[in-house]
Structures are given as C-alpha cells and as structure tokens.
Design a protein that fits this description.
Oligomer: heterodimer
Low-confidence stretches of chain B: 129-138, 142-146, 150-158
Strand order of the largest sheet of chain B: 1-2-3
Distance between the termini of chain B: 37 Å
Radius of gyration of chain A: 21 Å
Helix content of chain A: 40-55%
Mean pLDDT of chain A: 96
Shape of chain A: globular
CATH topology of the largest domain in chain A: Aspartate Aminotransferase, domain 2
Strand content of chain A: 5-15%
CATH class of chain B: Alpha Beta
CATH topology of chain B: Sufe protein. Chain: A
Strand order of the largest sheet of chain A: 2-8-7-6-5-3-4
Strand content of chain B: 15-25%
Structural class of chain A: alpha/beta
Radius of gyration of chain B: 17 Å
Number of helices of chain A: 14
Largest sheet of chain B: 3 strands, antiparallel
CATH superfamily of the largest domain in chain A: Type I PLP-dependent aspartate aminotransferase-like (Major domain)
Mean pLDDT of chain B: 85
Distance between the termini of chain A: 33 Å
CATH architecture of chain B: Alpha-Beta Complex
Helix content of chain B: 40-55%
Number of helices of chain B: 5
CATH class of the largest domain in chain A: Alpha Beta
Number of strands of chain A: 12
Largest sheet of chain A: 7 strands, mixed
Shape of chain B: globular
Largest interface: A-B, 32 and 45 residues
Number of domains of chain B: 1
Number of domains of chain A: 2
C-alpha cells in the first residue's frame, strides 16, 4: 500500500485540471503576445484566467501576475517592493522568523544590499503576536511580510491584524499564501493584503506556475526583464497550460472547500487521536487550534527524523522531516528552533500533511506502519 | 539534492547487525549527540587482543545506522591493532558509496569505534597504577539520560 502524506510538499494534479490544460499544448498553442488570431485567442484565455484568480482572492484583474511559482513570486515582491520604494527615509523590511527559505533568502539579499532587515519572533505555539510586530515596525519600514500558513507546522497567522499594523505605520503588507489554499478564505482588499504569493502545485494544480498578486498602486521593480509581458512586471512567454491549470485548480479548491475541509479535518483528528493512543512519548509541534486541518508535525522522542522517514518510506508511507527542501541539507528546522523547541528534540520531527486523496484506510495503515517504525528505532536508541 | 542510498545501505538500515548493548563491556564510547542529530554508542568485548564482540546503539539517520552496522560487522574478530586502523573509506566502499552529505556518518562511526578502543586500552594501562594504589575501578558506561519529556513507558533495551 502507498500512502502519500506529503501534500504540503506538493500535490497530485487533479485530472479535471489536466483536462482543462490539455488543449493549450497542441491546439491552442499560440503565444499570448502574438497579434494573429491564434495568439489573441490565447491572450483572451489568459485574461479570463486572471479574472478568475482575481475574483477568488478579492483583487483586481490587472494585479494578477503569473510566475514560475511562489519562489519567483516571493522574490519579485520582497526584492521588487523594497528596491522600488527605498529612499532616504525608508530602508527597512520586516519578515517573520518562520518564512519559507525563498522569503528568507530574499530578505538576506536585501540585507546585503544595505537594507535593515528585522525578523518577527514567534511564540512557542508557532504564532506571531501583534505586539512583536509593533516593537519592530517604524516609519522607516517599507514592507512587512508574514506567511498566512506555515509550511512546516501549519499554523495560521492573523494576517488581517498584522496588515493593519503595517498600514498604520505607512508600510505595505505581503503574505506568502502558498499553504493557505483552500484553508483560508482570502480577500486581499478586506484583509489589507497589498501583495500575495501562490503556487499551483500546492492545490492540485501543475508544477512550474504560480502567481504574485500586486497592488498596482504601489511601485514594484520587476526581477525578470525582457519582452515586457505582464505589463512589464514579469518578462517571459506566458505559460498558458500552467496558467489555465492554476486558475482551474484554484477555482475547484474553493468550490469544493466545505466538503474538503470537513473530510480532511475528520481524517486528521482521527489520525492524531490514534497516534496518541498507539505511540508513547511524542509531542505535537505548534498550536493545534490555530492550524490548518491538513497538518500534523510531531516530535517522536529518542529517535531521529530522517530514520523515521526512511523506514516509513520503505513501508510505502511518504512523509517529510520539516519541509522537503530542508530534508537533504541536514540542517535542523529553523521554524522549530524559532519556537524555542528544546534542542534535544530538534532532530526528531516528522511532518504529516494530508490532502484530497487520503482516506481512512490509508491512515489506519500509516498508524500501523508508524507504530512498528518507532518501536524498531527506539529498540536500539542510546537515549532512554 | 539527491539522497540516494544504495541497496546495501538500506538493507543495513532496515536490518542492522550488532545492535544492542554489552553488559560489562571492556570498552565503551559515545560519540555525537542529539543536538547535532546523530549519536552512536559503542560497546566492546575483547579477548586475547581480539574484538570478540561489538555492539552499538544509535540515535541517527539511516546512514548513521547503516555505517555502524557495517563497521561492527567488519571489525568483529579483528585484532585491536587492525580494528584501530580500519578506515572510514572502507565503510563507504562496503556500502557501495554514500551520498556526499552523508559521508560524515562513516567518519563518525569509525571515530566512535576508535574511542571505544581507546577506552579499552586506557583500562589496560590504568590497571597497574590502580592496583598499586588499590583504589581505581574501571568506569561503567552510563548512557546519558537527557530527555525531559514525561515518561509513560520507558523504552526497553535488549
């Protein structure tokens, strides 16, 4: 049996999305920048996709900029907004201490370019407290960036409240919403979000396509320049199959949101309850309450995370330690470190992320596999 | 980054040889720690200058476990002098190679074994001195108890 519990890393493409994408490979293959009919047909479909995305997140159609993914969207927004709005009085950006590496690295890039960069701490639950942002923000701040949902522990931040603080100090607000679909209802205008990032493959869309939502009233410096596509904000031939796939996947995600949330919450709660019954000496990382229902990040005492992952993988259960990106570079999770997790526990954590294609049978199998794995590895652990 | 383990590494991870403890070992050493993400404890039984038995405990990743498994297999029956010289490169070769970021596991395993041998050798040189003064007894290994989460059922060791 194969059980995929790594949906925060990526998801399986929804066959309905693939069907929508198919014509754009061999039939409607025109370049949306071409003047002839084939190109203009593609352009019309591009605009429709933008309208669809804009509507689903409560934004303006011309604010939707398609990118190669959220890494590019985050680079564009963090670097582009900071660089375009820098002046004698404004030279600072603030990001949370649990952002995805693409936000962290963009912030560090800006620090090297002479910007002041501050990191908002999180509490032991993995949550950002408004007062912590209040302490760091000032009139010098150009941009505040806080992810809506954390990729490792699934905690949900109070984005609207943080955006309000940013605006009160004359700063703009960005949220990396990659892990928030469809868990949070997004309304950029109501929530005070100036900039937002998305990635299609996190919600059953294709890989290689994402979106940056930008408030077009605010200056932003493009990071990829060339043929002037996306109103000059992101050069490169429009990836029509991907764009159509993203829009369709986003629409389906919100259309089926209620049923999905009910299902995944029930499964996750059952999973968590069973794990606690079956396996001693473990601990949940991050708030259970302010967390997306798809995520469980668990510390298993006395044993090492990668060993757990490999043992489970052999049994057909696919999970991750922290995030997929950190799995191969062997560094302990800075997200868990930021939460103040005991340093003896930093290397014993597994992220389970559920999704649309999981079922109870798979969860039952996972519990049996996990029980055996933990028992085996603990049988020769030197720590007791 | 790729993290491709060979079949032999996986086999040694899934069915490691020589895991466990030796009571009253002639040599014992701990290397690494939980904070770094890998720890190995080695136990030695020495007879007539040869490694009669060797066992290990691991808090570590798949290659940490696999390298200790292969190393203990290889040095069992060797003389102390031979075992001391067993190079980490041979451990890597035995496993058919290790991913680059995992090579350090083999170095750690070899260093841990050397440390356990040193512990054994120290007991040999200390003994005459001890008998002179008549007060020094050999130290027993006591694995560190450094977990602070509440204990429901202690993990049983064989």
């Amino acid at each position: 049996m194969k059980v995929y519990l790594d949906n925060a890393a990526t998801t399986k493409l929804d066959p309905r999305v693939l069907k929508k994408m198919e014509p754009y490979f061999m039939k409607e293959y025109g370049n949306a920048s071409s003047i002839h009919d084939l190109g203009q047909n593609a352009f019309q479909d591009l605009i429709k996709a933008k309208e669809k995305v804009a509507k689903l997140i409560g934004g303006e159609t011309n604010g939707v900029i398609f990118t190669s993914g959220a890494t590019e969207a985050n680079n564009l927004i963090i670097k582009g907004v900071a660089l375009a709005n820098r002046n004698e009085k404004k030279n600072k950006i603030i990001v949370s201490s649990i952002e995805h590496p693409c936000v962290m690295e963009s912030a560090k890039f800006l620090a090297r370019a002479g910007f002041k960069v501050e990191f908002i701490p999180v509490n032991s639950e993995g949550l950002i407290e408004a007062k912590e942002l209040e302490k760091l923000i000032d009139k010098e701040t150009i941009l505040v960036s806080v992810m809506a949902v954390n990729n490792e522990i699934g905690t949900i931040q109070d984005i609207a409240a943080l955006a309000k603080i940013a605006h009160a100090h004359g700063a703009y607000f960005h949220t990396d919403a990659v892990q928030a679909i469809p868990y949070l209802k997004l309304d950029v205008k109501k929530m005070g979000i100036d900039f937002l990032s998305l990635s299609a493959h996190k919600f059953y869309g294709p890989k290689g396509v994402g979106a940056a939502y930008v408030n077009r009233q605010i200056k932003i410096q493009p990071q990829i320049i060339g043929g002037g596509q996306e109103d000059g904000l992101r050069a490169g031939t429009y990836n029509l199959p991907g764009i159509i796939g993203l829009a369709e996947a986003l629409e389906l995600a919100y259309k089926e949101r209620d049923i999905y949330l009910k299902k995944v919450t029930a499964l996750r709660d059952y999973f968590w309850q069973k794990i606690q019954q079956e396996i001693p000496e473990l601990k949940l990382n991050g708030s259970l309450k302010k967390r997306v229902p798809a995520n469980l990040n668990i510390m298993f005492g006395y044993i090492e995370g990668e060993a757990i992952l490999m043992d489970l993988s052999y049994k057909g259960v696919y999970v991750s330690t922290g995030s997929a990106c950190s799995a191969s570079d062997l560094r302990a999770s800075y997200v868990l470190k930021s939460m103040g997790l005991d340093k003896n526990f930093l290397n014993s954590n597994i992220r389970f992320s559920l999704g649309r294609f999981n079922n109870k049978e798979g969860i039952d199998y996972t519990i049996r596999a996990l029980k055996a794995t933990v028992k085996r590895l603990r049988s020769f652990s030197p720590i007791n | 980054m790729a993290l491709n383990y060979t079949k032999k590494t996986l086999d040694n991870f899934l069915k490691p040889k020589n895991v466990g403890k030796i009571n009253k070992p002639d040599g014992y050493a701990q290397i690494g720690n939980m904070v770094c993400g890998d720890q190995l404890d080695f136990f030695l039984k020495v007879e007539k200058g040869k490694i009669k038995d060797v066992k290990f405990l691991s808090f570590g990743c798949a290659s940490n476990i696999a390298t200790a498994s292969v190393l203990t297999e290889k040095v069992k029956g060797m003389t102390i002098a031979e075992a001391k010289k067993y190079p980490w490169q041979k451990v890597v070769a035995e496993l058919g190679g290790l991913p680059n970021q995992k090579v350090h596991c083999s170095i750690m395993a070899v260093d841990g074994l050397k440390k356990a041998i040193a512990d054994y050798e120290k007991s040999l040189t200390v003994k005459p001195v001890a008998s002179k003064k008549g007060a020094v007894s050999k130290q027993k290994p006591t694995p560190k108890k450094n977990l602070t989460i509440k204990k429901k059922t202690p993990v049983k060791k064989k």
